[in-house]
Amino acid sequence: MRIHSDEHRNPPSSQKTKAMATVYILFSSAINSFYIESCKNIEQRLKQHKEHSFNIGFAKRASDWKIYFLIENLEYQQARKIEKHIKNMKSKIYLENLKKYSDISAKLILKYT
Q1: How far apart are CA 18 and CA 61, in angstroms?
Q2: Does residue 51 sit in helix, strand or coil?
Q3: Does position 4 have pLDDT exceeding 50, yes or no?
Q4: pTM of structure
Q5: What are the structural domains, with CATH classification, of the chain?
Q6: What is the per-residue pLDDT across 83-111, written as a single tens digit (0 to 9) for each?
Q7: What dihedral do alpha carbons 105, 67, 60, 11 form, nearest 10°?
Q8: 87-94 long-range Cβ contacts below 8 angstroms, 24+ apart
Q9: Which are the contacts of 77, defined by CB distance < 8 A and separation ≥ 6?
Q10: pLDDT at 30 over 50
Q11: For residue range 45-71, what is the model confidence (pLDDT) as tens digits?
Q12: Phi then psi dihedrals of residue 28, to 5 deg
């Protein structure tokens, strides 16, 4: 897992509205690694990953990123908190359990509401 800078996120002025957001986890079998992020527009962000729009950072290390897990329909700040929580766990087993047991993500949503 890698925690990276916020330089590619939406500017602070766009964070004033309560747009819906998604926490997403990608997996690359080429580098056997997960990528955890949150965004307001998941379709656009996945397109950026496929087109290698990010020239810096961890995401550029692989070209075979696949969606591993999504938590959708969150408020942006809620998504950021859940993203941070997942990254702080620093555990592949936690990510596997997050996908396997839906109650974990439900509890995260409640915790950060």
Answers
A1: 32
A2: coil
A3: no
A4: 0.80
A5: 12-111 (3.40.1440)
A6: 999 999 999 999 999 999 999 999 999 99
A7: -50
A8: 87/1, 87/3, 87/36, 90/1, 92/1, 92/34
A9: 15
A10: yes
A11: 988 888 878 777 888 888 888 999 999
A12: -115, 120
Residue 75 phi/psi, 5-degree rounding, is -70, 150
Name the amino acid, one letter, at 22. T
| Structure-token pair, residue 26 | 């990608």
Please, which contacts does 72-77 make with residues 24 or more away whose CB atoms are closer than 8 Å? Answer: 72/20, 72/22, 72/42, 73/20, 73/22, 74/20, 74/21, 74/22, 74/23, 74/38, 74/109, 75/18, 75/20, 75/21, 76/15, 76/18, 76/19, 76/20, 76/21, 76/38, 76/40, 77/15
3 exposure class (CB count in 10 Å sphere: 0-12, 13-18, 19+): exposed
